[in-house]
């Protein structure tokens, strides 16, 4: 892959080994519903959520403290990915297809991809997933089902993810792109060079995901 260019590869190459190779160098893939190729990206600037400056809005913190949702990890990784793959609006296109789901499920089985889930009355109502390599977590997507009572559930999953990352001593939470949704939590943009330096440091640490638990 060229360090400063997008890359198209044979979809059949979307293997766990290639995914890990790419993430360690700042690349991540996205599918295109109108194109059979998998596109790889290494954006400049890059968005991250600084763990030391992570901001939880007061209204959300009150919801977290209520404990309305059951929060789990890796209970239904496939379900989270499938929910994330659903278009948000009628004219919205998804970048997660079956090839992506198969590849990340394989990473999950290798303990290199994880999901945080929110459950209400036994139903999956929100969650997020991403890839973890040593001290870095690469957030991929999140979802919530307000119609099932899951309003703000994905945000609550994010709060628990950050708490777990801090507890385990992780250093980098990559969100790929800045969004207004993430801005309220303190999401910032940094240059690709700065990001790659942080990435190199994070993945050089000997940090394991461990057995997830809720951190108060």
What key attributes describe this structure?
Aminopeptidase, 10 strands, alpha+beta, single chain, disordered N terminus, about 220 residues
Structural write-up:
Mean pLDDT is 91; it is low at 1-6. By secondary structure, the chain is an alpha+beta fold. It has one domain (43-203): Aminopeptidase. Helix content is 32%, strand content 27%. The longest helix has 16 residues, at 153-168. The strands form 2 sheets. A 7-stranded mixed β-sheet has the order 5-6-7-8-9-4-10, sandwiched between helices. A hairpin with a 2-residue loop joins strand 2 (28-32) and strand 3 (35-41). The chain has 7 helices and 10 strands. It is globular and about 40 Å long.
| Rg, Å, rounded | 17 Å
CATH C-level label: Alpha Beta
Strand content: 25-35%
Query: What order do the helices and strands follow?
Result: EHEEEHEHHEEEHEHEH
Assign an overall shape.
globular
The domain count comes to 1
Average per-residue pLDDT, rounded, comes to 91
- The CATH H-level superfamily is Leucyl/phenylalanyl-tRNA-protein transferase, C-terminal domain
Return the CATH architecture. Answer: 3-Layer(aba) Sandwich
Runs in which pLDDT lies below 50 for 5 or more consecutive residues are: 1-6
Overall strand count: 10
Helix content: 25-40%
Largest β sheet strand count, sense and barrel closure: 7 strands, mixed
Q: Helical element count?
A: 7
Might you state the CATH topology name?
Aminopeptidase
What is the CA-CA span between the terminal residues?
A: 42 Å
Class by alpha and beta content: alpha+beta
Adjacency order of strands in the biggest sheet: 5-6-7-8-9-4-10
